[in-house]
User: What shape does this take?
Amino acid sequence: MTMSLGGNIGLGLAVAKARTLGRRVPLFVQLMPTERCNLRCRYCYADFGYRVREDFPLDNILRVIDGLSRLGTRFIMVAGGEPMMRRDIGTIVREITSRGIECSVNTNGLAVAERIGEIASADMLSISLDGTRETHDYYRGEGSYEVAVAAARAARSRGLRVQFQFTMTRSLKENFQHVHKVAVELGCFIGLNFLRPQQHVDGQVDRQREASDEELREFLHWLIAAKPPRLPYPRHMLEYVLRWPYPYTVPYILRASELKGFHPIPCASGRFLIAIDNRGDIYPCTKLFYTKPLGNCLEGDIERAWRELEKVECQACLDPGCNYLNQLLQLNPRALRGFIRLFR
Assistant: This one.
């Protein structure tokens, strides 16, 4: 996740104020207006291409955005599923940005190039790019690589920031170097994603594994040494992931008794961060979608839901992006210094 410099200064001031007053504020919100998807990715963590639950009604989404604005939200990430499958995605994005809230759209890139005008008011696109054409098309479908790169070009031509989401699958160094080359060419950033347990529509859960833990650690050591300029994570964030006490197929630690002496980065979920799915169910983050929700705002009353939100119980997270955000929300000096270097 990368915000504008002004957006992060505003976020920092909002965090400082909330901490001083001892308040909970949903500063960062992940919003899923649909779980429909037009791809059938081999490793999808939620079988989004096969889910059939209805979309979040537009009028209610607009009420939620209005309420989040009053609650003090600074950043909304519109995700899915594939949010570009909504014909009204432009309305949703414009409603967010018109209230001074920064907006990112997470997308596989399909339909972006031809519909870029509808989402041009967004601040950033986060586009999945898994590696070379061969690798990306293997996991996401033939022709999807060209579409993703074309989406990034279209977004950059409109002045939008673009972050490539690189899911670590196989041949990690080769695939990352390819994505980094494209990122340098287009002026983009890169985020790292671990494969997550796959929650099928029939209720079964698979632990996704491509590269071994040894290969992943070797790759992380290489990143620390190589310092690729388009990867925004500071060194200590990658070292934190290397100390993870479980296999990398375990994405989070829920209970303190399971920490095994591991010292976690405190999680901001439920205090400064929430995720809302297409049925209005509220979760600490997208990592916990399809578990027990903390509350619901399907009718649009997010302010009531926020007041009544159940307490979050989660100890530690593997995801580098989430941990970077957690440290920014703690006003951690090392994370802030890394962010300033990024925008230089």
Notes: The chain has twelve helices and 13 strands. The two ends are 17 Å apart (CA to CA). Residues 42 and 159 are 32 Å apart (CA to CA).
